[in-house]
Design brief:
The protein is of the alpha+beta class and 127 residues long. It has 2 domains: 48 residues, no CATH class; 55 residues, no CATH class. Helices cover 33% and strands 17% of the residues. The chain is built from 3 helices and 6 strands; from the N terminus they run βββαααβββ. Strand 1 and strand 2 form a beta hairpin. The radius of gyration is 19 Å and the shape is elongated. It starts with a strand and ends in a 15-residue tail after the last strand. The mean pLDDT is 94. The chain binds zinc ion (ZN). The site of zinc ion has 7 residues, from loops.
């Protein structure tokens, strides 16, 4: 995926762990849309495994071709990834610092320019 910033720089999203990419977790609805669904699914999975209904849980939550021999951690990781796929992704232009947030209607991005020059790695875990 590539996004062109207003400055002309092309932002590329073709690998993991990008320091200029960030998931946005809106506070209004975070609990209902992210936290609680993950918690409910993990608890449901654990309960199903405990009573010997792992296959039933997989059938209800994943496609028919999902590998049934997956380890628990892979299953839970895929589950978390599915929930997190609902979250919008922001990017920061590494040339001008513009932060691009997807428009709600999917028609492009809203750009926000930093107010000072200390904007590098604003979306990164890096310190
Ligand atoms: Zn830019």
């Amino acid at each position: 995926m590539k996004i062109r910033c207003d400055c002309g720089h092309v932002i590329s999203d073709s690998t993991d762990s990008l320091p200029y990419k960030c998931d946005l977790l809106p506070d209004d609805g975070y609990w209902d849309n992210i936290h609680q669904p993950i918690l409910d699914s993990v608890l449901d999975y654990a309960r199903c495994v405990a009573v010997g209904d792992r296959e039933g849980w997989l059938s209800r939550n994943f496609a028919e071709n999902y590998p049934r021999d997956s380890k628990d951690e892979s299953i839970l990781s895929d589950l978390i990834s599915a929930v997190m796929s609902r979250v919008p992704t922001a990017y920061q232009c590494t040339e001008c610092g513009n932060i691009l947030i997807p428009k709600r209607d999917g028609s492009g991005y809203l750009g926000f320019q930093p107010l000072d020059d200390d904007w590098r790695d604003a979306l990164s875990w890096r310190k």
